[in-house]
Amino acid sequence: MHYFFLVFPWIFGFYFNAASSDLAQVLIDTSDTLTYQNPVFEPVLADPTLIRVGDDFYAYGTEDNWGEEGGYHLISVLKSSDLVHWEYQRDAFDKKPDWKPKGGIWAPDVTQVGDEFWMYYSFSTWGDPNPGIGLAISDAPEGPFLDQGPVFFSEEIGVRNSIDPFFIQEQGKNYLIWGSFHGLFLTELSLDGKKAVGEKIQLAGNHLEAAYIHQKDGYYYLFGSAGTCCEGANSTYRVLVGRSKKLAGPYVDSRGNELTDGKSGELVLARNPGSKGVAGPGHNAEIITDDQGKDWFLYHGMDLQKPKLKNGTNRRALYLDPLLWIDGWPVIENMQPGLGPQAMPIFQP
């Protein structure tokens, strides 16, 4: 197949802005099939979350300092119409929440609720004995988000390392799933989403974090990330999944093993072998279905040739791959990040 490059900057994805001048490597072949090549955004969008508003997508990522490649960002907000070309919009917060004396704002989860946009987020330091999960609300997807304070602290809810929130609504009720290597848990939230109510239910064991639920064909699929997220080229992050007929579980893999056993789960995605490719792929965002019915999987990963920024920050860029469904189970092709040109998602304007 022969490719030629178009000279127009928007095709190459050159977005010269405060965030990054890196590009999503987009080509067009002689049969007019648009393709792209990972990563779709650099230098950093760690722990991504994703929403669709009309014809546009918004992605959000953990607080990070991009150093010479974009500076400090307090929850970056990106915008795209095709999941491939992303433009930095602004930071989600005008000022940092102050209900903890110190810590980072990590792993946001954004959902449109009525006419509002709710962002649950983690507030924690590395090794924090009492991290918490907060809520911020905005009238617009790009923000600014106004902080509503803590939903709960780890000591209050009785779960160590309470970070990585995921919000879901079920039969008119609000729920939050959360946890990081001390179990994944589910709890009901108040109608305003600001407090946990009722009992917590354990969904998975101590081997997972970064929970995400996707519903398909009568099942709830619980995705989680295992391994180490943030050791540059040595990161062992990978994505596992289990499924259940009920939101509250039990979640099992294809062999019937329950995720609460602390070791099980169906492998979806892991690093590429060898010295090239992507280390630590994981903490996936929401799955998006394009106009041809194809599912797409966004996550962060680190190019093994440049796994860190000059300031030492893990260079967790944004990656995109088609998600396959085989015998009722989701998987990325070869269970590895795609490295070569791939056909783009199809969205009609």
Q: What is the overall silhouette?
A: globular
**Helix percentage range:** under 10%
The H-level CATH homologous superfamily, spelled out, is: Glycosyl hydrolase domain, family 43
Structural class: mainly beta
Question: H/E series, N to C?
Answer: EHEEEEEEEEEEEEHEEEEEEEEEEEEEE
Question: Low-confidence stretches at least 5 residues in length (pLDDT < 50)?
Answer: 1-31
Tally of DSSP helical segments: 2
User: What is Rg?
Assistant: 19 Å
Query: What's the CATH C level?
Result: Mainly Beta
As a percent range, the share of strand residues is 35-45%
User: Under the CATH scheme, which architecture would be assigned?
Assistant: 5 Propeller
Q: In oligomeric terms, what are we looking at? A: single chain
Explain what this protein looks like in three dimensions.
- Keywords: Glycosidase, Hydrolase.
- This protein has 349 residues and is mainly beta.
- It has a single domain, classed as Glycosyl hydrolase domain, family 43 (Tachylectin-2, Chain A, 5 Propeller).
- The chain has helices at 9-12, 154-157, and strands at residues 3-4, 27-29, 34-36, 49-53, 56-61, 64-65, 72-73, 76-80, 87-91, 104-113, 116-124, 132-138, 146-153, 166-170, 173-178, 184-189, 196-204, 209-216, 219-226, 238-244, 266-269, 278-282, 288-289, 295-303, 317-326, 329-332, 342-343.
- Strands 22, 23, 24, 25 and 26 form a five-stranded antiparallel β-sheet that branches. A four-stranded antiparallel β-sheet has the order 1-2-3-27, with no helix packed on it.
- A hairpin with a 4-residue loop joins strand 2 and strand 3.
